[in-house]
Fold these 2 entries.
Entry 1:
Amino acid sequence: MKPFAPARLALAVARIRERMHSAPADLERLLQTLAEGHRPARQFLRWISVAQGRTVQLITVDQICYFQADNKYTIVVTAAAQSLINKTIKDLVDELDPDLFLQIHRGTVVNVNAIAAVHRDLRGRLEVHLEQRSEILQVSASFAHLFKQM
C-alpha cells in the first residue's frame, strides 16, 4: 500500500534470488547444543581466605555455618570460630551456591547443612536454630517464603 520505488523492489528481488542459489547456513551444531541444553557450569565459591595476623587461613564453605554482615565487612562463622573478611554480603550471595546457602535476612546468609530446625517465635516470626552453634538467627519477612515449602 505504501508507495515504493521500482529500483528498490528490483534490488530486493535480486537479493532473494541470490540467496536461493547459495547454501543455507549450517545450523546443525547450534541445534545440537540447544537440544542438549548445554550451558557452561558455573563455578561457585569453594573456600574463604581469612587473614589472621601473618597467616592466611582457608575455610571451606562446608565448614561455614553462616555469614553475618558487619558494615563493609562480613563475619564468617564456623562451628569453632568467627573471622572477619573484607567482602560484603551482596558480593558473597553472588558467589555462593544457592543450593547450599540461603539469605535469610538482609545481613545474614546461612549454610542449609548447618540448620538444625526452623521455629516460629511467639510473634510468629521464623527463627533458624543451628546444629553446631547456640545462636538463633532471625528470618526477615522478605525471606520467610524460602521456608514455606518446608
Note: The two ends are 61 Å apart (CA to CA).
Entry 2:
Amino acid sequence: MIPIAKPLIGQEEMDAVMNVMKTGTIAEGPKTKEFEDAFKAYVGTDHAIAVNSGTAALHVALLAKGIGKGDEVITTPFTFIATANSVLFTGAKPVFADIEAETFNIDVEQIRKKITKNTKAIIPVDLYGHPADMKAIMDIAEDKNIAVIEDACQAHGACIDGKKAGSFDIGCFSFYPTKNMTTSEGGMITLNDAAVAEKARMFKSHGSKVRYYHEMLGFNLRMTDISAAIGIEQLKKVERFNEARIRNSMLLSEKLKDIPGLVTPTVKQNCRHVFHQYTLRVTDEAKIDRDALMAELNHQCIGNSIYYPLPIHQQPSFKGIVNGDRYPVSERMAKQVISLPVHPSVTADEIQFMADNIRVVLT
C-alpha cells in the first residue's frame, strides 16, 4: 500500500524526546518556550502560543479576540468540522460562505454578501495547503473592523508573495501526525498583538498569568515539552518536507494532464501551495465517477481519501444551526474530490504507478 499519509519521525525526534524525559520536566516548560520562539521566527510574527491541538488554537484565538454569544463568524462549510465547532464553543454563530472551485477556499465575494452588523470575525481556511485569498480578506476585514483568524492548520510554510500563512492577522496551526510537520498532537497560535497574545496565554492555562492566581475562566490546553521537543526537530525539516511535497505534486500533475474529466490541483499566481493534500476533481465528464475510481485505486493498493465527503452545513451535528441553507459549490466538490499521497516518502516510481493506473481507468 502507498499510504495516504506518513509522519516522518527520525532519530533526532527520538533523541529529543528522551532528553526531555531525562530532565523530568515533561509538561509545559522550557522546550515549549523554545518551540514557540522558533515557530514565531519561522512564520514571521511577534508571538506564538503553543496549545494541545489545532482545534484548541482556533478556540483560544476566538476567545482572545472577545468572540462570544450574539456574534457571527464567517467561515467555509468545506473544511474539517473543527473550524466551525471552535465558533460554537464560544457561543457565537458560524455563518457559512461558499467556496471557489479552483482552490476549494472560501470565495471572497461570498464573504462580502454574508457580513452583517453582528459579524465579528472571518475564519478563512488554507485548505489542503493552498493559502486563501488573504490579501482581499484582510482588505474586507480592515474596512469593516472585523478580526481575521486564519485557519492555517494545513498550511505550514504556505505563502502569498513570500508572506507566510499565519502572519496576516491571527494564525492557527495543527501539528496532527498527518500534517506537514507534527508534534504528535498539538497546535500553535501566531500573531503580533501583545494584548491578544496575553489573553490567549491565559485562556489556555486556567485563566492565569501567575501560577495559582486566576484572573478569568480558562482551560488546560497546554502543550507538553515532549510534544514541543518533537516540534523543534520537525520545524528544522519542514521546508525539506514541503519541497518534496511540491515536487511530487508537480510530477503527478504532469503525468495526469489531459485526462478527460480529471482536474488536477491549481496553484494561484504568487502563491506557494505546500500540498498537505494533493486533491483531484473527478467531474461528470470523466469515464467513471469518483467512487468508482477510489475502488480501483484501493484494488491497486494506492492510498486515497476524501477530504471532505460531507460539508459542515450537512452534518447531523449542525442540524438546526444552518436552517437548510445550501452551498452548491461545496456540495459539488464533496462529490468530486479525491486526495492522493504526495508526502515526502512517496517515490517517483510510486507516482508513475499511480498515474499509470489512473490513466488506464479514466481513458
Note: The first strand starts at residue 47 and ends at 51.
